[in-house]
Amino acid sequence: MATHDSGHASQKEGLRKGTIGVLGIVFFVVAAAAPLAGMTGAAPVAIVLGSGSGTPGAYLLVGLVLLLFSVGYAAMTHRVTNAGAFFAYVGRGLGTNAGVGSALVSMVAYLTVQWAIYGFFGAVMAGQMAAQFGIELAWYSWALIALVIATLLSLLSVDVGAKVLGVLMIAEMLSLIVTSLAVLVDGGPEGWNLAASFSPGNIFAGGLVGTAGIAFAFAFASFIGFEATAIYGEESKDPKRTVPRATYLAVGAITAVFVLVTFAMITAMGASEAVNKTVEWSSVDGVPLANPANVLITVASTYVGPWLGTLMGWLILSSLFAATVAFQNSASRYLYAMGRGGVLPKAMAKVNGRGAPQNAAIVTSVLAVLVILYFQINALDPILNLFYWMSATAVIAIVLVEILVSIAVIVFFAKNKLDEGVFTRVIAPVLAALGLAFGEYLLMSRFALLAGTTAPDVDPTVTAWAQSMTGTVLMAIPFIALVIGYLIGVARKENDEAIKDLVS
Length: 504
Fold this sequence. Notes:
Elements: H1 22-33, H2 35-51, H3 55-77, H4 86-94, H5 96-133, H6 139-154, H7 158-186, H8 194-198, H9 200-203, H10 211-222, H11 239-269, H12 274-282, H13 293-303, H14 306-340, H15 358-377, H16 382-415, H17 422-445, H18 447-451, H19 469-491, H20 496-502
């Protein structure tokens, strides 16, 4: 099979070429991962319920699995340049029907994670503004304000959004790095304890079906968004070089920051007291982990100064907002690519004069408005329901597609005798597929913890698969989307050429 670039460059109307470089893509991807939000939200939970002082090691191992995934993923970018990324790769390796199936799963992932972040942002912003300035607005009002701004940015040229995210991301990353370095220079109450954080005995303490599995599940959840590099391939400068570089740089940066920050948090509290201190600092009215963000804020306030703790409270909001912008762009480009491929109405493929996917961006925003209003009208909590339900669903969906991509890479290079080495063609994607499949198992077995959908009278920290009917339905959505998408691909043979274009 001859390799080729996408033929979309010849289209009169399409995404604007050559508007974004390596750093611009990295800004979008790192912003989507929302490092500060992840370190204030997921990391404390992983410490208390998971591996304790071994949590940094869990983040490191997950990062290594995703780096292995990136090897095959980056290699595919040399063969395919498409705004549909994931499903274009799956389509080239496993056929158009599987490609369309993964397209629907990808769409579920990027829409649900965006909805989740709006809930989190709205709730945190409402609390901050009321406490600091006495401005009383409901969570959904702040969520809708953020949505309007994110929509406007998504309708501009992609490089504008990259510049905005660059500013926000630099501030966010600096706060994490400064805090971590301050702790490590001081050494904390017990000094550095590398063995406590990185020895296999501590990382896997409690077993993969027990507490260690919980830590790995939350670590996998923290990385969502890293895979979006290829989405911007059509708009990038020299995509064959830009996208692979951006992928490795983004995954490496996210992994390094997550490992550094979690190790600094453990050091700041002392490895032997990390769990107890995390419980103490995150408790509200005697309820552990009711305010997990306070753990990192306390560390920053103690080792750098109260000013950074206060600033970090606002940077969490900017981190969440940056993530909404990043996922707005990702979701709209998936809808655009599916419209161009004939899976969705052709209107989804319309771009504006700035080269942005106009109709897809508007539809993405309208769907978000409807979801926000639904949760508000039905008095569902923006964090306990909207954020936890949707983010957990998104993680299951993303990892499912990553598994399919890893398998597709193996099949694609087996069918096409190309010049990639055996490590790129076989070893890395096989190891990635195995690691991701096990990660998916851990995520599903601990879905009740991730989504807050525990079955009555069951302790989800002790019992796996302990979820309610709501949790079962949410967890099943990505797999249902895969089947529906596959059937759409089978049924729409009259649109075969368009669908083939979708995965080109």
